[in-house]
Each structure stands twice: as C-alpha cells, then as structure tokens.
Write a structure and sequence with these properties.
Residues 17-222 form the Heparan-alpha-glucosaminide N-acetyltransferase catalytic domain. This is DUF418 domain-containing protein. This protein has helices spanning 16-34, 56-72, 81-107, 116-125, 134-156, 164-173, 179-195, 200-220, 238-258, 263-266, 268-274, 277-293, 303-307, 311-328, 333-345. It is an all-alpha fold and 352 residues long. Helix 1 crosses helix 11. The model is unreliable at 1-7 (pLDDT under 50).
Length: 352
C-alpha cells in the first residue's frame, strides 16, 4: 500500500529548521511545567542543566511566533499594498482566535500561566510592524529590550496586582509574559524571517552574533546586582531580555543549519510536533486538566500531577499524535482551524 504524505511537515514552503526549533520549544515548555528542575543554571554543573528550560523555552516560543508571523506575511519580501492589508486583517483574526483559545485554557484547572492571551495581544501590537524591514525590526527589539524592563517594573510595583481583580486581569492579559516587553521577541523573530533562511552563511553569522548577545546578557549584564539588569527566568530584566532573546535566535539558526544536513530526517518526529505547536501546547494543558477532573477530592493539582511523572508519557503521546496527524492529515487541527477562519474573514482577493 502506498501512503500519500499530506501537507504539514512535508510542505515545500515549510522551513524544517523552524519546525525543529518549535518542537524543542514545545518540549521545553512541557519540561518547565511538569518537571522538577534545578532552581539555577550553572554551566559547570551538569546537575543544574535542567534549569535551562525555565523562562528560555517560553521566550524561544515567542521568538518563533515572530518568525511565523514574518514568514506568513512575505518572509524576506514583505507584502505591500493590498496584500499587506490582507495580512493585517488575517493577523488580527489570528490574534482574536489565539486569545479565545488561551482564555478557554485559562478557565481550566491546570495551574499554568497560559501564554496564549499574551500572544493574542502581541499579534495585535505587531500589526504596525508587518511592513518593516530587518534593520528597524531589530533596532526596535533592542530598544524595547533595554527600556521595557523599567516600564514593566513600574507596572509590577502597583498593589493592584495583589488584589483579586488584579489576579484576574493578570491572567486575562497573560502578564506573566508581559506584552510591553515581549513585543521585543516578536519583533526579533520577524526580523529574522525578513532576512530569510536561504543563505547558510548568513544564518551562521546571525546565530554567532545572537550567541554572543546571549553570553553578554546572561554573564555580563545579568551579573549586575541591579534588579533591572536581572537575567533570572521571568524577571523581565535587561539581562534576561538580551540573554534569552539571543539564545532563542541562536537556537533557531542552529536548527535551520542542522536541517540542511541528513539530521533533518532524524529530526522529523520533533519537526512534526513543531509544525503544530498550538495543538501540542493546548493538548498538554487539556491533558493536565482532565487528570485533575478525574481525581478524587481533595487533589494537589501541581504536586499530585508531578508525582505521576507525566513528562515522558505526555511527550511520547504528543510525538505519536503529531507524527500520525502530519503524515496522514497535514496541518495541525488548531493550526488549520485558525488559518481557515483567518482566510475566510480576509480573503486574498480584495474587491474594488
């Protein structure tokens, strides 16, 4: 029997390295949620290396969202005029749909800071950036990375966040991933997509520069005692903004280069997961919520779930599902749904 390989991972327009990086980000976020990791990363102590997923996975996820946005809107040849108008309408609809999915997940009992509401807001904030070229995108990202930590710190200082309404607003806007700062990662990812991945030497050069920025952010800026310079996970300090942002771009570039080799075939299962990150992320939180719903009260939603060591079962189940879906169907179910609705709302052919 001959099996027809559907779209998804095998689609000609897909960049395999970007899918690989997305897959790594998905599993990194799984680990950050359900694995007891070391509280602090020390390069010389292997026992602490599990800490690398904390904060960095979600920032890689956000940077890749920017890459996806850039690729969807023309890649290295950004759309203009009528196509740009279509892109903006579709992106706005994607933002609304992603926010709606995030809101639904936020209502579920899984004790996780859901990132999707922040994504919805970030996509709206990115609308004016869709026509920008790489240089202004990276300049904007750098300026935000340096300035936004002070803005976020001032907002965080408000006693409002320690009230019940404050907690609700925080969840509704995904403030654990503050959009005022995280727009830098979206812009950086868009800048990377605008440069393009066609030339291996260019990708290598960008990756090396980004790796250097990561070292500066974590080891130099982050070593300062000033809170605004912190490189700690989810601190939104300048050290984290530069360090984790640089690391994210370096990882993406490394994945792109790896997928120019036979490793592309070996990495296919992870690439399959990366081709449907919204589905994989949502599935993880639904699985956790279902586990909570099926337990006898009282239940510890964090300690109880971690006690069953869910990382490998969830990861294997995600791999199997995503591989089968990519092989026999194509695009992930949520990715297909969001894309189809966005295209229906903003068809490519404009009247007038």
């Amino acid at each position: 029997m001959q099996v027809r390989l559907s779209g998804g991972v095998r689609a000609a327009r897909r960049e395999g390295g970007v899918d690989l990086a997305r897959g790594l980000a998905v599993f990194g976020m799984f680990a950050a949620h359900v694995v007891v990791t070391s509280p602090r990363f020390e390069p010389t102590d292997v026992s602490t290396w599990s800490a690398v997923v904390n904060g960095n996975s979600s920032i890689l996820f956000a940077t890749l969202a920017g890459v996806s946005l850039g690729l969807l809107t023309g890649g290295s040849a950004p759309h203009t005029a009528g196509l740009l108008a279509v892109d903006r309408r579709r992106t706005a609809m994607r933002a609304a749909l992603i926010y709606a999915i995030g809101f639904a997940l936020w209502l579920m009992p899984a004790p996780v800071y859901v990132i999707l509401p922040a994504y919805g807001i970030l996509f709206v904030l990115a609308l004016p950036l869709l026509s920008w070229r790489p240089a202004p995108l990276f300049a904007f990202a750098g300026a935000v990375a340096v300035a936004a930590p002070f803005v976020v710190a001032a907002i965080d200082a408000s006693p409002f966040w320690f009230t019940l309404p404050g907690a609700v607003v925080s969840g509704l806007v995904g403030w654990h991933y503050p959009f005022a700062a995280w727009i830098a990662f979206i812009a950086a990812g868009m800048g990377l997509a605008r440069i393009g991945f066609e030339r291996a030497l260019t990708v290598l050069a960008i990756g090396l520069i980004a790796a250097g920025a990561a070292v500066i952010g974590f080891a130099v800026v982050g070593s300062s005692a000033a809170q605004a310079a912190s490189a700690e996970p989810h601190s939104t300090g300048i050290g984290e903004m530069i360090g984790a942002g640089g690391l994210a771009i370096a990882v993406i570039c490394a994945c792109v280069l790896l997928c120019r080799t036979p490793f592309r075939v070996i990495a296919w299962p992870v690439r399959a997961v990366g081709s449907m990150p919204l589905t994989a992320y949502t599935g993880q939180l639904i699985a956790w919520s279902v586990w909570i719903w099926t337990q006898d009260a009282p239940v510890d939603p964090i300690g109880g779930f971690l006690a069953v060591h869910p990382f490998w079962p969830m990861s294997i189940a995600t791999l199997v599902f995503c591989c089968a879906w990519a092989l026999f169907v194509g695009r992930g179910p949520l990715e297909w749904g969001v894309g189809a609705i966005a295209k229906a709302v903003a068809p490519a052919r404009l009247n007038g």
